[in-house]
Amino acid sequence: MEMRLIYPRAQQELDDFRSTSAAVGRLSTLEAFPLHRAAWLGQFLLVQKHLRDGINVDSTLPRSKITGLLYAVDTSQFAVVQLLLSRGASVNKASAGQSTALHILAQKREGKDLQVAIAKALVDAGADRTAKRKEGLTPYWYLITFCANKASEEHRLLFHPGDW
């Protein structure tokens, strides 16, 4: 039985996304990783169940080293991000490409208020704003490059690695 999302608009977006070949490939890949799949889809109760059943909150996909937290941030699943952080997810655990949750969040162009809320949760949990990807780029660089005209002052301050 397939779980449905609570919010109709989110469900419609997910249904539209599932119809693309990239999504179909990703979903089939994630079948073997139920925590990651549930985090990516924003299935809060299912993430909670998997954690209760003993799945490691910091488990990673074999090649990409992506965690459930990185998927939840990538798909802007705020409630799931909060849940994973409350269960001890490593906020600075990076993917194979050295992307942390802040790097991923900084590249999001939509949902500024939601991004600020997620950024606050990550920073409050100890996210390293000075972390560098393998190219030597910080989350702040990604924020300014991808979202320069959409980032509020509060947004910029959350990502900036130093004191202003």
Structure write-up:
With 164 residues, this protein is mainly alpha-helical. It contains 10 helices and no strands. Helix 3 packs antiparallel against helix 4. The protein is globular.
SSE-based structural type: mainly alpha
List low-pLDDT spans.
none
Q: What's the alpha carbon Rg, rounded to whole Å?
A: 15 Å
How would you state the average pLDDT, rounded? Answer: 81
**In percent, how much strand structure appears in the residues?**
under 5%
CATH topology: Serine Threonine Protein Phosphatase 5, Tetratricopeptide repeat
Provide the descriptors you would attach to this structure in a database record.
10 helices; Serine Threonine Protein Phosphatase 5, Tetratricopeptide repeat; 164 residues; mainly alpha; 54% helix; single chain
Helices and strands in order, then pairings?
Blueprint: H1 8-18, H2 21-30, H3 34-41, H4 44-52, H5 68-74, H6 78-86, H7 101-106, H8 112-124, H9 139-147, H10 153-159
Helix pairs in contact: 3-4, 3-5, 5-6, 6-8, 8-10
Protein name: Ankyrin
ANK repeats: 64-96
Pfam family, one: Ank_2
